[in-house]
Specification:
Blueprint lengths: L1 H6 L10 H12 L1 H14 L4 H32 L8 H28 L25 H8 L1 H19 L7 H28 L6 H9 L1 H16 L5 H39 L5
Helix pairs in contact: 2-5, 3-4, 3-5, 4-5, 4-11, 6-9, 7-8, 7-10, 8-9, 8-11, 9-11, 10-11
Length: about 280
């Protein structure tokens, strides 16, 4: 959504912090959608009330808590150096108010609404007795498929990633939002295709445990983004101070996690619709 606003000209990189502020505000407001989706998926996998509560708590606190913890530790290091670039305590308090006062209630409201909805209809009945899974070849192991699957989404964003990182770390303005939108569309299609393809190969090998494979097949691209950030640090940046190095890798870890979560979520939802489609076409007498 932030990219759409930037594409239409409402947000400009020349206005310092406008893109980041918009992303944080929209992430806060999207809590209702996140909670709703989490509850609906929990019901698909037969989650009871206790599991629904655990899922909602993880949705509300896990990812924001991890990122805020990294950000707070990095900010403490900057404070220790008495740098003017440290974030003020009032700004941190405002972020916490947005998180606990707006995002968390919206997540719980969305989860409550989603849990009250009817369970998604699955095309076939799930067998209560798990089938024996044949021994899989080495190239069909979860680790192998994940590492292979993450290459293609990363390859689709590789060139654009160089310009994005240059705009962040070399203080260059970035205005190519139209081209970035096209790259994003290609990445989403690539994530969906690679997850569906690898899941189909897994199902034909009589391995029905497709859910985490569909996520990790495209979500592992975040690992390649972080590895690329290491190469970029060694080849393009001249940073020697330990706090600056810590900030670079801390923020790149956050960016890599976000990219992995986005690509993994796209792969999972695409595969979920694909699996429902192929099993829905089975004629059961």
């Amino acid at each position: 959504v932030t990219l759409i606003f930037a594409l239409l000209g409402f947000l400009s990189p020349a206005q310092r912090g406008s893109l980041l502020q918009s992303m944080m505000l929209l992430f806060t407001l999207m809590g209702v959608l996140g909670g709703y989706t989490a509850a609906r998926l929990c019901k698909v996998f037969d989650g009871d009330e206790g599991r629904w509560k655990t899922t909602t708590l993880l949705q509300a606190f896990l990812v924001p808590g991890l990122f805020f913890g990294i950000f707070f530790l990095l900010n403490l290091c900057i404070w220790g150096e008495k740098s003017s670039g440290a974030v003020a305590f009032t700004t941190l308090f405002a972020i916490l108010v947005l998180w606990f006062g707006v995002s968390v209630p919206l997540v719980f409201f969305g989860a409550y609404t989603g849990f009250r909805k009817e369970r998604m209809e699955l095309p076939v009945r799930t067998n209560q007795i798990p089938r024996a899974i044949p021994e899989q070849p080495c190239y069909m192991q979860p680790l192998a498929t994940s590492l292979v699957g993450g290459v293609l989404p990363f390859g689709a964003v590789f060139t654009e990633l160089f310009f994005i990182m240059s705009s962040i770390w070399l203080h260059e303005f970035y205005y190519l939002f139209g081209f970035l939108s096209l790259v994003l569309l290609i990445v989403l299609i690539t994530c969906a295709e690679i997850s569906i393809a690898l899941t189909y190969f897994q199902l034909t090998s009589e391995d029905y445990r497709w859910w985490w494979i569909s996520f990790s097949a495209s979500g592992s691209s975040g690992i390649y983004v972080f590895l690329y950030s290491i190469m970029y640090f060694n080849s393009r940046l001249q940073i020697r101070h330990w706090v600056s190095i810590l900030m670079y890798f801390g923020y790149m870890f956050i960016m890599s996690c976000i990219f992995g979560l986005i690509s993994g979520a796209v792969g999972f939802y695409s595969t979920f619709m694909f699996v429902r489609g192929i099993y829905g076409s089975i004629k059961i007498d």
